[in-house]
Known about the structure:
Elements: H1 2-21, H2 27-34, H3 38-66, H4 68-88, H5 92-124, H6 129-152, H7 157-175, H8 197-224, H9 236-250, H10 252-281, H11 285-299, H12 302-312, H13 318-346, H14 349-365, H15 370-373
Helix pairs in contact: 1-5, 1-6, 1-7, 3-4, 3-5, 3-13, 4-5, 4-7, 5-12, 5-13, 6-7, 6-9, 6-12, 8-9, 8-11, 8-12, 8-13, 8-14, 9-11, 10-11, 10-14, 12-13, 13-14
InterPro entries: MFS, MFS_trans_sf, MFS_Transporter
Main location: membrane
Organism: Pseudoduganella rivuli
Amino acid sequence: xxxxxxxxxxxxxxxxxxxxxxxxxxxxxxxxxxxxxxxxxxxxxxxxxxxxxxxxxxxxxxxxxxxxxxxxxxxxxxxxxxxxxxxxxxxxxxxxxxxxxxxxxxxxxxxxxxxxxxxxxxxxxxxxxxxxxxxxxxxxxxxxxxxxxxxxxxxxxxxxxxxxxxxxxxxxxxxxxxxxxxxxxxxxxxxxxxxxxxxxxxxxxxxxxxxxxxxxxxxxxxxxxxxxxxxxxxxxxxxxxxxxxxxxxxxxxxxxxxxxxxxxxxxxxxxxxxxxxxxxxxxxxxxxxxxxxxxxxxxxxxxxxxxxxxxxxxxxxxxxxxxxxxxxxxxxxxxxxxxxxxxxxxxxxxxxxxxxxxxxxxxxxxxxxxxxxxxx
Length: 376
């Protein structure tokens, strides 16, 4: 059962990554089809994050009450059903509603699969979380690249979405037999305020997710301002970050088994901080790219360790704790880029990235909090 559950968990992470990233290549098509101004598009895109944020805190209680299998099956089915609607929406209101429902479904799936990952890791008694999150990263790359390839070969956005939805549904169907029917909890309220050590873990997640969101939204702008670096090549910054993060996650479980949570969290935070400072201070674009790769490598195993810590802490049931820290972390993704923009406008983008480096040093210091890292 343990092996089956591990395989099912990996498939669920992979399917969620594919479905989530499939939307990214469709954004320009939606903008053109609905004739949206950038400001209007930004407001509509925010609906996806709002849907996720509203759904995540309640998902922990739902998984405790109904089990991961029912919640993952229901939310995964909704994700697959709503995905084609993103390409078929004929008005801004329809697109906003579809994105809200898509975000809520993706957010529910995200929390439920992490609750399952925590339980499977507990049962196996060995680190597995980095590998699970690595499958999400691979799914994200596969979804975005696959949809882009389909669109480039003349496939309509709607047909591309249907293809991705069918693939994700097939993966979830294959994973269903290994999904956990129960997680050992029941009777929890749909929303419980995080408390105790969960707040500390959530704040560290907030910092890491904020850094990830900033690299996604702002790394290209930093590179575009480098001498001799073409704007068309600016996306290489996030590519370097993503490749390094995926690589780090697939080796993360073995590293955590050998070195322990404390050392991996400490070294990861320092490595990510060094990457941000390198990106800020480097005189050449190639060194900036290396800096973003260091950020990805350093951050790769921090969130998996924090999710494991959330499942182990005694202040809240594991399912509620995972839901809480996921919601807090995703707040960082939503608010981080805006905060970076404010600092960049008031001072400079370099100063904003340096601030993220300092935040990663705070995360590194969190390695010494026993509630976060546990035994070394």
